[in-house]
Amino acid sequence: MMVNNKWLAWGMLVLNLILIWFVATMQNMIAMWLMAAIMTLDAVMNLFALYKHQ
């Protein structure tokens, strides 16, 4: 099942807003793990998009 890019973009925005909230409330370890997950998810999505169009 393919995920619509619009929903993926909204999901990434929500994750980044949660990340900002964790940083603002000084929950640094959770924020660091969430940032690593967001970056990994972004890299996987970019790789998938690159290989999908070939």
Notes on the structure:
By secondary structure, this protein is mostly helical. The protein has one domain (6-53). The protein is built from two helices and no strands. It has helices at 5-24, 28-52. The longest helix is centred in the C-terminal third of the chain and has 25 residues, at 28-52. It is elongated. The two termini are 19 Å apart.
Mean pLDDT: 88
N-to-C order of helices and strands:
HH
Category by helix and strand content: mainly alpha
Question: How many helix segments?
Answer: 2
Number of strands: 0
Low-confidence regions: none
- What is the helix content? over 70%
Return the domain count: 1
Per the principal axes of the C-alpha atoms, what is the gross shape? elongated
What is the alpha-carbon Rg in Å? 13 Å
Q: What is the makeup of the main sheet?
A: none
**Distance between the amino and carboxyl termini:** 19 Å
Strand content of the residues, in percent?
under 5%
Transmembrane segments: 7-24, 30-51
Keywords: Membrane, Transmembrane, Transmembrane helix
List the keywords.
54 residues; mainly alpha; transmembrane; membrane; transmembrane helix
